[in-house]
């Protein structure tokens, strides 16, 4: 989802590769949630004990969960920074432009929630994106410090719970009359309108996760993206990657040791049952997952600039150039696969199948995106967003 208004022949190719990679990772996670909602996911997965399914769950935990949302967020913040700086250099108005852009992104997100899937992040990005005008002026040290503090602070859940109590808002009551069986019935045999109602209730129920977990991580990565953008690091990324090689390798080693310990050892300790200890352990896991996401970016950049294997990651750029379109399309595919308007596969697949399906779908998206971009400059939703932002009809054909 780039906010960078560059012409196709001036695009920064590595950014498109990064975006494509983020879209892949997010789909691998989202398809699991689409297939079995949070309320019943643990109970559903517990029935699969075959080695291949257990290994699949470990793969998702180690390599996908909480790794790609930070990547997506960082790239979004970076795109905003590049765009704002470019408009500033060209002496073009910024505030109204960015406000329009975020407003229409917010609208896309709300429509996504209501008509397709409740797990949308676009509206959150739009809300946080409006803050960038204030943050982008901050000194580099403050930007990085705030980014670190936001992702490391462990007690958002307690603060949010206190706020909800103060305003008498009880999000968990919205699905109090729904168990896993009822949700399954609505998704697989209910009408589309019943699905719309369920998605609305799911969204309200998930507000603590949205603002207590996702929002701080997103804002942290936004700030890191702003730092990279305002210092124009993307234009000398090859040298930056070389400079941080040793720290990134060391960080990957340390964080992966903790992640394995957390999954295999720490959650089985008696002390893990203590709320404060559990909170700290989980927060450390989140920090390590975010660090792993950043390592992925470094690794892909290293492959792109310093190895002969560019062809391995190059196809990602086609999906990346149409990241918004492909992100929404993935949700629509999920509706067709799992709900009553399609194949009704909700809670019918094994974990290994939920890993294979998005891999196949993403491969098809690469092909379709490449074909589309041979004829058009932008993806369909990117084009629409662009027209609404610039308040004019922009040519789309090559």
From TrEMBL:
Name of the protein this chain belongs to: DUF418 domain-containing protein
Q: Where are the membrane-spanning stretches?
A: 21-39, 59-82, 103-136, 142-160, 207-228, 248-269, 281-304, 324-343, 355-373
Chain ranges of the DUF418 domain: 229-392
* Name of a matching Pfam family: DUF418
Instruction: Write down the InterPro entries for this protein, in alphabetical order.
Output: Bact_Transport_Assoc, DUF418
DNA damage as a keyword? no
Q: Which UniProt keywords apply?
A: Membrane, Transmembrane, Transmembrane helix
